[in-house]
Amino acid sequence: MDVPSSRVPKVKTQPGSDPKIADANGRRVYTWSSSHREDEDKEKDKGKDKDKDKDKKKKTEPEPPSVQMTTFASWEELGRWYAGLEKDRRQPTPEIRAKAAELTAGKTADLDKIEALYDYVATNFRYISLSFGVGRFQPHAAAEVLHNQYGDCKDKHTLLASLLEASGYHASSVLINSGRKLDPDVPSPSQFDHVFSLVPLGKDEVWMDTTTEVAPFRLLSYTLRKKQALIVPPDGVPHLEETPADPAVPNRQIQEIDGKLNEFGKLDAHIKMSVRGDAELYLRIWFRRVPNAKWPEFVKQMNGMVGLTGEVTNLKVGDPAATREAFQFQYDIAASNYLDWTKKKTEMILPLSLISIPDADEDNSSADAEPIEIGGPMDYQYTARLEFPAKYTERAPLPFTMKRDYGQYDASYKVEGTVFTADRKLVINTRDLPAVRTSDYLAFRHAVTTDTGQRVAVDSTAAGDPTAPADLKGDDLNDAANAALARGNFAVAIELLKKVLADDPKHKTARMNLGRAYMALRQTDKAIEVFKMEAEMNPYEEYAYTSLGWAYSADRKYDEAAIAYNKALEINPLSEYGHAALGAMYAEAHQYEKAVPELEKAVSIKDDNPGLEISLGNAYLNIGQDEKALAAFDRAIELSATPEVWNDIAYQLSLKKAHLDRAQQYSESAVTAVSAALRNATLDQLNNRDLAAVSSLAANWDTLGWVYFAKGDYAKAEKYVSAAWIVEQNGEVGDHMGQIYEKLGRKDDAIRAYGMAMSALRPVPETRARLAALAGGDAKVAVMTDKYRGDLQDVSTIKLGKVAKETGSAEFFVMLTPGKTGASAEGVKFVSGDEKLKVFSEALKSAAYNLTFPDDTPTKILRRGVLSCSASTGDCRFVLMLPADVHSVD
């Protein structure tokens, strides 16, 4: 920065960003330099590690700039400068005076007049987003804004100020930063990105922000409250002042749900919402932005974010601009598959039961740390009434009350006949708490969130085995089938879909869903038969042929798959999925020259799919076009820098033993990210993402192990691939184990690994040749496969010993963590089956599990298994299910 020596600006820098200053020839030059060398970053990290046990202030807002500069000597000087910019622009014209008189006619109270002027500017003048300070600081003249009927924040403020002035009220300008706190040491206009209005009214102050268009009168958004702002009065002294901490409109939310479930788990409910305060403002903004015709889809998406999926009908929404009353909307929703009717005993979470209550940092508890923001004042009320079919018996969750000086939570539940009701109320009476209260608040928050996660236990045991009513027909029967399919109860889904097709052989979706169910059970022969029949009945149905190609590919019948995919492409030559699936099939069959053109076509049709870029990169890599391959991989990462993308790229590079340093970097990043995600998994709050993450981590371990194999580090390769093999028992991973043992000179172990891989999921064709070479010819392959098939089962079996006194079976989840000598169960959760086997939870927790984590990265592995006990033998065995076979957390 080069300035005259006579003009000394105020410069403030963050520690470590100090400039070098040089004076010469009447000029003063400030020079900053910055570097980000890897060795310097490591030193900084070491320094951070030394302080990791110290309490630090929680960083809830962005850091101020590293360098700030201003030529203003004080905030007053800056304020007077801005007042000069807007003075002429806010003067009332005759037109503005006439409009003000019209708007305030018949009103006598000051607040009523001010509110009328505020409502007019807020709702009738479209906000154009141009951050304060970008492009210009001076607003348009009020008369010009009145004519244009749009403007940015300072334009809308100027018009409101002019209307207020015409009515005898003198509005101040409020300059503020909506993103971070103001630095009081640097009076610079660059610190501001927003402006709104303040009217002194006796001893009261009326704060107003017309920018959002739909904020209730006097309500400032959360990001503008309790912050230092520069107040610029039209004639007084500019000064810094803190905006109000609490919302002018109390935060209140009321939810009412009245629903009924049918015998196969479909929920039909009427939902009413009434919202006031901060949540109201955001909802009004969204409903105003979204076209009315798309409101049902918008509400459907909102529901989906909190786990309630279904079609929204009969939607009635209040006027987003009618801000003098609470914002209300109501609708009906039909949610198929809300209750798993296929199980004798299940649990159901209450619809829309999520309560948003801010988290806090448990390490942020020192006396000088910043207060923890807890979101009050707030009043939240939730009422649900759900009617169940007579065949079900419901057990209500435990009632719960917790009271603190800063808030109270009450929850009551009851069952009367076939009707379950829930009432919850949360009251928070303050905005923040001292940091020393962090532990207390976190305990309160944990209790509240735990209660909102409580489920209604539903039992249909008295009605016998869960079966669809014999007279169930048409859409109801199909809904029941789809519910079973979505819940992962594929055997039940298959039987019901067969009934649907028996009643209606030309049903639009049932046959395709039947094929999907067979595929999920890996009954590919039956799936092929079903998809063939669909193709015969609908010869121009593209997806019948792509599904047929999928089934043939799963069986590694590549010639038949190619015929099916090509038939689909005859029907729709621009099918992105058709080209992608055909290309991926050719790649799996190592026909890379054929794969490339298909994948290139798929990418040209849909150029924002990272998976397609990876498939194309793999094909390029295998025909020796490394430059194109790396470019495709880079595009994939640009589109989606996620663990899945990193892992897939790393694996393709490892297979070709190319660019292995890059492969290792990607693979390690994937392992670290997925391990971190699983670290937070808990048995009391399981979700399908946790199930998917287990499969992902196993795949990531295999990839990292295969990178080490390509690098010649066979010991490390064994650790990672062995862990992956124990978890997922995939044929390709088993093949990797055999190759590692061969390199380590462990022939017998290699034969055993290849033998087990032949019976595992989707064995790769190369395994047979490798096993034959070691075992003594093709004739030995079947012998070795039979010999080690039992060993494959043993890998997943945990024997509890002679402890059974009764016969039965039950399913459990176990959460495995690294132990001193292997994996240990951190927790055990009963899922379904004979409840008398719950007594074995402790035995499962103390059992020895056949898994050694490959490194010291903190993580968890979630496994589901079936405990079978026999009174006649006394044996109890816990057989872990493969992650690929676990489709639900229920």
What Rg, in angstroms, do the CA atoms define? 33 Å
Give the N-terminus to C-terminus distance in angstroms.
64 Å
List unreliable stretches of 5+ residues: 46-59, 131-135
The amount of beta strand, in percent, is 15-25%
How many E strands?
Answer: 30
Query: Based on the structure, what is the oligomeric state of the protein chains?
Result: single chain
Q: Mind describing the biggest β-sheet?
A: 8 strands, mixed
Shape, per Cα inertia axes: globular
- Estimated structural class: alpha+beta
User: Roughly what is the average pLDDT, rounded to an integer?
Assistant: 89
Largest beta sheet: strand ordering: 15-16-14-13-19-23-22-21
In DSSP terms (H or I, runs of 4 or more residues), the helix count works out at: 28
Helix content: 40-55%
Please give a quick description of this structure.
This protein has 28 helices and 30 strands. It has 890 residues and is α+β, with helices and mostly antiparallel strands.
Q: What does this entry look like structurally?
A:
This protein is of the alpha+beta class. Helices cover 42% and strands 21% of the residues. It has 28 helices and 30 strands. Helix 14 packs parallel to helix 16 (576-588), helix 23 (714-728) runs antiparallel to helix 24 (731-743) and helix 25 crosses helix 27 (779-795). The longest helix has 24 residues, at 688-711. The model is unreliable at 46-59 and 131-135 (pLDDT under 50).
Task: Please tag this protein with its features.
890 residues; alpha+beta; 8-stranded mixed beta sheet; 5-stranded antiparallel beta sheet; globular
